[in-house]
């Protein structure tokens, strides 16, 4: 569904050039959830913006559903961390926003929006306005707006980063349920290792300066996943080891 082929990108500032992405290639199959995981500044958002058609690569190409990406398209929606809800529109009208350019009757648009709102558990809040909702609820509205459009691909740039643990876990579960129902393809950016292991079929681990993918890790755990199992911890540890963050490598060295 997504093909990234030999993509490179540099940013130029006065005479200096900063290579952010170096010759990255990977594929995401239809219905997969794949995560780009890496430290701050390694180029995750830049890569996602290139795939979404918001930024142009210096070299290489991106294809979504076999069509070359040259600009944002409605079959590939980007969900940013900032929810971008319009404060003067109700929840329902915010969700309908993405459908207004579609060839749908008013009634069809309404039904599509209300179905998506129900999927994220906000049926009772459809006529409320963003300022009347919590941050987590607003984020659910943004997710409903993306899903209402029934895109082939959803690109998510740290969509849950601003939420507390309870809301984050809850929304991760809802995302998995909706994704299973809609069979959407999701490419997610995060630096939350737990989130990556919980959601992903594969995790692409990035290194920085310049950004490269140095590991494509398949998470061979059935869904829904249990964060407390040894299998889950096994994958968390494998990733922590990649970043040399497991803590004491050899406890004997620390004994007197
Ligand atoms: N428009 C831009 N102009 C100049 N430099 C940029 C631009 N966008 C990103 N960069 C630089 O590219 C590098 C990668 O940024 P990017 O936002 O892609 O990283 P990231 O991995 O998503 O980081 P974070 O996890 O902190 O969001 C950074 O050094 C950043 O300063």
Number of strands: 10
**What oligomeric assembly is this protein in?**
single chain
Major sheet size, sense and barrel closure: 6 strands, mixed
Helix content: 25-40%
Q: Which stretches are poorly predicted, pLDDT < 50 over at least 5 residues?
A: none
- Overall 3D geometry? globular
InterPro entries: AAA+_ATPase, ABC_transporter-like_ATP-bd, ABC_transporter-like_CS, ABC_transporter_ATP-bind, P-loop_NTPase
GO cellular component, one term: plasma membrane
Membrane topology: Peripheral membrane protein
Protein name: ABC transporter
Molecular structure report:
With 256 residues, the protein is of the alpha/beta class. It is built from seven helices and ten strands. It is globular. The termini are far apart. Bound molecules: adenosine-5'-triphosphate. Residues 11, 20, 38, 40-46, 191 line the site of adenosine-5'-triphosphate.
Features:
about 260 residues, alpha/beta, Rossmann fold, 2 domains, six-stranded mixed beta sheet, four-stranded antiparallel beta sheet, about 30% helix, globular, binds adenosine-5'-triphosphate
């Amino acid at each position: 569904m997504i093909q990234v082929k030999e993509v490179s990108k540099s940013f130029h500032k006065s005479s200096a050039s900063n290579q952010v992405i170096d010759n990255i290639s990977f594929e995401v199959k239809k219905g997969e959830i794949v995560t780009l995981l890496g430290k701050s500044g390694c180029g995750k958002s830049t890569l996602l913006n290139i795939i979404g058609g918001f930024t142009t690569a210096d070299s290489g190409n991106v294809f979504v559903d076999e069509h070359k990406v040259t600009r944002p398209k409605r079959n590939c929606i980007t969900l940013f961390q900032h929810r971008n809800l319009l404060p003067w529109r109700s929840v329902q009208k915010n969700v309908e926003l993405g459908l207004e350019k579609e060839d749908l009757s008013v009634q069809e648009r309404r039904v599509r929006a209300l179905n998506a709102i129900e999927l994220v558990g906000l049926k009772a809040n459809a006529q409320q306005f963003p300022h009347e909702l919590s941050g987590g609820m607003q984020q659910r509205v943004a997710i409903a707006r993306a899903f209402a459009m029934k895109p082939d691909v959803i690109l998510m740039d740290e969509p849950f980063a601003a939420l507390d643990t309870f809301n984050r876990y809850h929304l991760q579960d809802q995302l998995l349920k909706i994704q299973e129902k809609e069979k959407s393809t999701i490419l997610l950016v995060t630096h939350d290792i737990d989130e990556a292991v919980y959601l992903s079929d594969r995790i692409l681990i990035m290194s920085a300066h310049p950004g490269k993918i140095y590991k494509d890790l398949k998470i061979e755990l059935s869904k829904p996943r249990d964060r407390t199992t040894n299998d889950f911890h096994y994958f968390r540890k494998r990733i922590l080891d990649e970043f040399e963050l497991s803590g004491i490598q050899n406890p004997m060295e620390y004994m007197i």
